[in-house]
Amino acid sequence: MNYKYFPHTEADICHMLERIGIQSLDELYADVPESVILKKDYDLPSSLSETEIRTFFQQLGKKNQQLTIFAGAGAYDHYAPSVIAQLLSRSEFFTAYTPYQPEISQGTLQYIFEFQSMISELTGLECTNASMYDGTTATAEAMFMAIAAGKKKNRILISSTVQPNTLEVVSTYAKFRGIELEQIQATDGVTDKADMERKLEAGDVAGVIVSYPNKYGIIEDFSGYADAIHAKKGLFIIQADPSALAVLKSPAEWGADIACGDGQSLGMPLNYGGPYVGYLSCVKDLVRKLPGRIAGATTDVDGKRAFVLTLQAREQHIRREKANSNICSNQSLMALYVTIYMALMGKQGLREVNELSYSGAHYLHDQLLATGKFEELFKQPFLKEFTLRSLVPAETVQQKLLEQGIFGGIEVDKDCLSFCVTEKRTKEEIDKLVAIIKEI
Amino acid sequence: MKYYDKLIFELSKEGRKGYTLPENRLKEYTLASLPEGLKRQQAPELPEVSEFDVVRHYTNISNKNFGVDTGFYPLGSCTMKYNPKINEEMAGQPAFANLHPLQPAATAQGALEVYYNLAHALAEISGLAEFTLNPYAGAHGELTGLMVMRQYHLKRGDLKRTKVIVPDSAHGTNPASAAVCGLNVVEVKSKPDGRIDVEHLKPLLDDTIAGIMMTNPNTLGLFESDILEIAELVHACGGLLYYDGANLNPLLGKCRPGDMGFDIMHINLHKTFSTPHGGGGPGAGPVGVAKALVDYLPSPRVCKADDGTFYLSHPADSLGRVSGFIGNFGVMMRAYTYILSLGKEYIKYVGPLATLNANYIKESLKDCYYLPIEGICKHEFVFDGLLDKSTGVTTLDVAKRLLDYGYHAPTIYFPLLFHQSIMIEPTETESLETLDEFIDVMRKVAREAIECPEEVKTAPHHTPVRRLDETNAAKHPILRYRDLAQ
Question: What distance in Å separates the CA atoms of residue B109 and residue A350, rounded to the nearest whole number?
């Protein structure tokens, strides 16, 4: 029983059993039916020492290939300042629970408030919650908000240009809750506005979900969307890359009611898909439909400024089955991550990140076209991600790149490959990719 | 130490910066050429601060926080055990942390092996057939598990089953998850001894029941001794049993939900398997199912081919996707490290030692706090406030006074079965000395409630801030700096 995570000596255990008035640890389970008591050890590996653990994962890590990332599709390889990981490792932050006792949780509450403030700056919308699991589930929760706000309305329209994983998650959530989810067609790589208007005309639409930039990397023009949707009393929901919002017209400027998405693009490691951090912002009128934790400013009995979880009457632990969401936790530590990132980068840095990504992506775009192995798919504006039609089989492109340690060319539609360039990619890396394509 | 109360925005000064980026060598391509109509008109007001400003700011605000590493954190139902540091080191390795979620499976075999082996270790520990690790948190696991339950009935064409039974002592997420999953909640009552009333359950069981959600031990820390009979009854009516894994910790090494008849469960890796709570996340909520339900698990699934390689699959009967990719992989790395560290030799002591610690505190304090239900508890137990109710000192006051003495408060006012609930869960990683010191302080607070009640009612006195005006915070919400600054 002597293991480094258990401080109990045998004498301790004897003393404690005596206080409880029993003879053995087994007696602690006297109320468990005998037939379900485990009579053997688990079929698990034997305990490893710390040295063995390190060796084990080093060996396992060799089975992963370190690639130069020219892909996005919802997970972006942006630069992460060194400071962030250092600050995140302060265990005052990462070993804390949800800030239920505000008097000893001001650190957490304050960074949540800062996170909310910064995300609200990017989206332009007044209210942001303490964060969500990821961008896909944040979008599903945005749908729930629209359904709750729409009273009896039960239809949601979603553009077919959203990332496929978002579409699938939103579909799953809609299916089980009995929400009618309908896709809006795409024309020229963007949401077909006329199709949306036709579908709005049919009535009963609680909300419309679009993506920004979309799955092709295209920055869609949402002029007139808000008016068309609001005329039918629906909510306009934009799933947006928050990094890109530093330079692109904001959801608020487009007239959106809700903005949602994944904060991963704010310098977070790729981490093979998680943990990331979803965000959810809305206009003031919808704040009571906003799920999850929200931090607000207040004062203590001495008049000191302080922060506290607020508007809790919305939440599952109060409303139980009447709650509009079952969200309990947030991705707090990851919210801290992107908060520190945004603090370091500031408004100028985020702009530069976008400028560098834009330059690299457009250079790659033109160079790829010049190889003659690709042709333009759509003539639409993009930022750091774009899609071209491949004139050679998609698989060949992907394979040739992989052989040279490059991950790029995600197949969006048949033989249509998307590439992404962030500020981390050098001109040499881009030229190398192009050279490999030329060779095909 | 000086009290620090700045917000990062208040350190901002135009022209300061906290980053370096490479020079743009492709300047001929510029954002300026984007169509005007797509450009942002007003730049976001993010702070402009130096790198050191940022470091000092977040270091200072971290000092206003209390974590497991700071001190004893007996928060009931939250399993605030020690978060081993080797877990963090392993999770941070670039060979895993730099993987793109969509890179081909052939180039991420090490990561997929972690996923697969962790899933199988959890299956062994729970006595269930298979696990998905895709759900992001406990509540997300509940929702996913209930989707499995519904998918099972739907695929069998059994469309009437729209109700799920939830005990009155359940975590709030249980009924909320059920509602979000399109199920109607039926509440089953507890007996005076805190366990499910089987006689009240029986008449609820018919062909409209999709299943029952249970926590075992329940939120009072009591083992549901009638579990085998309950399982038989629910299965006999065609329903499934869902196990809320929030309270799995005390069962480690002693018994398995699958052996009790549970068909579906979730596990909170951030509770039982030592991954940090992170101030409210990220967690992970893997979902395990019995053999008959494996095909309904969410996609993608991580599978192993005959040649030993791992791949992702999207089974036709799957309930669909619940996460952007395959879940919080970084959290899986930590939990897997924990399981490998303890191994089969030591993991079996987690449950008994956690249970020992809880019972020790309970027995040591029941002469000054009211213990509504006597007997052996599991990993946690609930007092219904102070034994002496004449002082006017409430559970909230006791909780706040504990902060003055350097402890995190227990969970309070939950479960809802009692008016003054104080729910205490020490976990197995706390020493006898820590427990004894906590017991002494709890006794001291009980004495203070009689001798100097005002001192307790106005606590805390020695924390970075004192009691907050929560009413005003909710009445006039200020949720961002822009509104605060005005």
Answer: 34
Residues 6+ away with beta carbon under 8 Å from B452: none
Contact B164, B186 (CB under 8 A): yes
User: Which residue, B306, B327, B347, sits at the end of a domain?
Assistant: B347
Residues A326, B104: C-beta atoms closer than 8 Å? no
Query: Please, what are the averages of pLDDT over each run of 10 residues along chain B (486 residues)?
Result: 92 96 96 97 95 98 97 96 98 96 98 98 98 97 97 96 92 88 93 92 96 95 96 98 97 98 98 97 97 98 98 97 98 98 98 98 98 96 96 97 98 92 98 98 98 97 96 95 89
Q: Which of residues 34-63 of B touch A (CB under 8 A)?
A: 34-35, 37-49, 51, 54-55, 57-59, 61-63
Enumerate the residues of chain A whose CB falls inside 8 A of the CB of residue B143: 326
Q: Which two tokens stand for residue A243?
A: 């990094």
In-domain check, residue B62: no
Regarding whether B460 and B418 lie in a shared domain, the answer is yes
Report the C-alpha gap between B216 and B214 in whole angstroms: 6
Domain that holds residue B51: 3-57
Backbone angles phi and psi of B386, in degrees to 5 = -70, 150
Q: What ipTM does this complex have?
A: 0.97
- Its pTM stands at 0.97
Q: Look at A345 and B99 and tell me if their CB atoms are within 8 Å.
A: no
Q: Are residues B186 and B329 in the same domain?
A: yes
Which of B31, B363, B376 is closest, CB to CB, to A19?
A: B363
Strand pairing report for B130-132 and B184-188: unpaired
Asked whether residue B101 is domain-assigned, the answer is yes
